[in-house]
Structure to design on (729 residues):
């Protein structure tokens, strides 16, 4: 195994009854990079990282983390990873410090080193002043920060973060994203799952897009965007629903794809400047008024739409 | 030691839950205290104090003994002795009607009227005299007491008369001339004996090695022992239930992502259960001994009973939790299963007064609580280690079965 590789997942598969949650997933995460698994809810991201964290045993395939096999040496794998679960996993009737001390002991820290690491992490997550407060008195964002802090106590080589920004306020979200960047600057490898395209785009060196248990695309942001051929994305809101209009738009030359979700119509086009007048003209013919228009350069959302025919947020 | 860290963490969490304190200590001690107040005065053997009986004594006895005084005066002296001071208060009166009137008005309990010929009747043995006891009809114990004392005195005097008669007849049979002086001297000698308390012919004694009886402590030993067994099983279940709570809150899965073996995690939780139970049993037994003077038995049998209780309560917790899917089920199961089996197991202690029927004892031994209670009861009754061993052995057998099933199911669940 090359020293530059932190994680190597090879044809990992896992089923729950009839559902194939993860289907032969293969990817590689280099040391010191931020690698994101991007996909909608139910895509198989959490199941994949549960296998990497040795919580679930794969039906087939294997993976190595820092050279240790998740099948053959799970304790060694666990020692070199820090896991940030999607839900808050803390003892709410204990204080922030008591939580960190307990989890530190579970990672094998003792005595002065434990105390030092707890102090360091409390400073890192900005909760030194509130360290003696019980966690159940904290806001959602503060709990998230402690939740992340637990995974940093033993200075792991790899941190696995499962959608750590779900359901929190923008300020705490910003704090977490900046924290991930700081960790990465310190050389920590981060495996990050999210269904927020913006987060993956901002944080990641490499991204794997997952859908229905499979990785459907992977690479850097720029590499992924080329999949949709540098297409522009036009989002429109219409005065009322008109399926025949969408069919007509889809047939226009230069239009790659048309989809409608939650009252918003998304159209992928080669050149928005050239197509827009035709879109307005067709709408006029069907007595449909376009109430808002947004034009975006190619992004991961467009890639997902291009690959699956569905919006990522679904 | 990770296992200790997990145990300490669990106990720290438990200690911050008020309900835990309530069920572990407050309720068992509270119920025992309730019984203490209900039965304390009677069972503790406190002295029952009779009210003093007010006696109006009318001594009309005109007879005279050779040494002076009369039989009536002797009766009056005896009634006013220090020995009877706590039972009767005697006031003397010269007027019999006035004395009866005081009783009728409720100013006195008893009027004791000694007739004028009492001495003569007793000394000469040829007459009869009647002592009148006029009493308040609403009273029973006080007048009966006075009647008893007076009867005893008069019986003594009657014995004097008989003795005098027999002696004089014997003297006459031996041709001794009976003069008035001789007759009176014989009568005086017997009357003097009658006034002297006889020495006890039978001495009552208490063996030095006899166990001091304390009925209240025995009663409370059953109650507190029962409560301890009942709630120890809840403690065992509740502390093991943290596995389900942690599973639902995601901390158990997070523990599994740390380099901590599953057996260490489960061991830590079991250790927390054992420590909690040890604390509960030690504190309750200690409080029972110190506060309620309960004698739990000799040290070694008591230790066996306590260990048996702790182990079976913990094992039952492991077994029950392994059967449950979530904490919602736990509430139902703990509320139902532990309450019903607990009540069945403790049935004999509520029937100990009349002696529990064999069927009840048999039913109680169908559940582990019954065996745990049996161990405590045997120890408190002074059983030896040898006598304790069968019960302890059965408790260990219950533990082995419960733990084997529980651990097997847990291993499958978290593998």
């Amino acid at each position: 195994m090359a020293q530059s590789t932190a994680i190597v997942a090879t044809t990992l598969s896992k089923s729950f009854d009839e559902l194939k949650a993860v289907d032969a997933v293969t990817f590689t995460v280099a040391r010191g990079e931020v690698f994101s698994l991007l996909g909608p809810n139910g895509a198989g991201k959490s199941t994949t990282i549960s296998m990497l964290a040795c919580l679930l045993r794969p039906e087939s395939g294997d993976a190595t983390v820092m050279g240790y096999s998740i099948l053959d040496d799970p304790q060694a794998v666990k020692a070199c990873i820090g896991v940030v679960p999607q839900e808050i996993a803390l003892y709410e009737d204990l204080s922030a410090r008591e939580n960190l001390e307990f989890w530190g002991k579970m990672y094998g820290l003792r005595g002065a080193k434990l105390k030092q690491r707890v102090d360091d992490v409390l400073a890192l997550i900005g909760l030194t002043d509130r360290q003696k407060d019980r966690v159940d008195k904290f806001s959602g964002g503060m709990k998230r920060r402690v939740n992340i802090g637990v995974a940093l106590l033993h200075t792991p080589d790899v941190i696995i973060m499962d959608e750590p920004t779900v359901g929190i306020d923008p300020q705490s979200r910003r704090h977490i994203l900046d924290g991930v960047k700081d960790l990465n600057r310190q050389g920590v490898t981060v495996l990050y799952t999210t269904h927020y395209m913006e987060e993956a785009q901002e944080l990641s060196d490499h991204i794997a897009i997952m859908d229905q248990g499979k990785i459907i695309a992977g690479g850097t942001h720029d590499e992924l965007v080329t999949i949709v051929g540098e297409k522009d994305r036009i989002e429109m809101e219409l005065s009322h629903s008109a399926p025949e209009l969408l069919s007509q738009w889809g047939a226009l030359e230069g239009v790659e794809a048309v989809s409608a979700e939650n009252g918003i119509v998304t159209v992928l086009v080669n050149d928005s400047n050239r197509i827009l007048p035709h879109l307005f003209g067709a709408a006029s013919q069907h007595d449909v008024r376009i109430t808002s228009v947004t034009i975006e350069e190619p992004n991961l959302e467009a890639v997902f739409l291009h690959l699956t025919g569905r919006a990522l947020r679904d | 030691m990770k296992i200790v860290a997990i145990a300490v963490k669990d106990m720290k969490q438990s200690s911050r839950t008020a309900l835990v304190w309530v069920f572990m200590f407050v309720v068992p001690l509270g119920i025992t205290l309730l019984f203490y107040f209900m039965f304390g005065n009677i069972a503790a053997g406190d002295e029952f104090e009779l009210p003093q009986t007010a006696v109006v004594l009318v001594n009309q006895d005109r007879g005279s003994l050779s040494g002076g005084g009369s039989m009536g005066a002797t009766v009056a002296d005896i009634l006013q002795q220090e020995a009877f001071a706590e039972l009767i208060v005697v006031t003397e009166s010269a007027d019999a009607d006035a004395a009866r009137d005081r009783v009728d008005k409720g100013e006195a309990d008893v009027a004791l009227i000694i007739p004028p010929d009492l001495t003569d009747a007793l000394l000469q043995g040829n007459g009869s005299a009647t002592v009148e006891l006029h009493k308040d009809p609403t009273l029973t114990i006080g007048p009966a007491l006075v009647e008893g004392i007076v009867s005893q005195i008069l019986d003594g005097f009657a014995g004097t008369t008989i003795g005098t008669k027999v002696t004089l007849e014997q003297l006459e049979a031996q041709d001794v001339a009976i003069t008035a002086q001789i007759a009176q001297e014989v009568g005086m000698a017997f009357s003097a004996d009658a006034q002297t308390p006889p020495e006890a012919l039978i001495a009552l004694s208490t063996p030095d090695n006899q166990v001091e009886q304390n009925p209240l402590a025995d009663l409370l030993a059953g109650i507190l022992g029962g409560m301890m067994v009942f709630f120890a099983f809840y403690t065992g279940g509740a502390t093991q239930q943290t596995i389900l709570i942690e599973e639902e809150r995601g901390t158990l899965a997070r523990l599994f992502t740390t380099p901590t073996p599953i057996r260490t995690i489960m061991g830590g939780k079991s250790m927390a259960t054992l420590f909690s139970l040890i604390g509960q049993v030690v504190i309750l037994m200690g409080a029972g001994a110190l506060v309620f003077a309960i004698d739990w038995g000799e040290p070694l049998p008591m230790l066996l009973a306590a260990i048996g209780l702790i182990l079976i309560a913990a094992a039952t917790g492991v077994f029950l939790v392994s059967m449950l899917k979530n904490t919602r089920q736990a509430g139902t199961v703990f509320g139902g299963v532990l309450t019903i089996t607990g009540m069945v197991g403790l049935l004999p202690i509520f029937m100990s007064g009349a002696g529990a029927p064999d069927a009840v004892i048999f039913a109680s031994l169908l559940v582990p609580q019954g065996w745990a209670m049996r161990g405590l009861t045997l120890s408190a009754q002074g059983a030896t280690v040898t006598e304790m061993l069968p019960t302890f052995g059965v408790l260990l057998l219950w533990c082995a079965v419960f733990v084997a099933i529980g651990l097997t199911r847990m291993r499958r669940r978290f593998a």
Summary: The longest helix of chain B spans residues 141-173. DSSP finds 16 helices and four strands in chain B. Confidence is low (pLDDT under 50) at residues 198-211 of chain B.
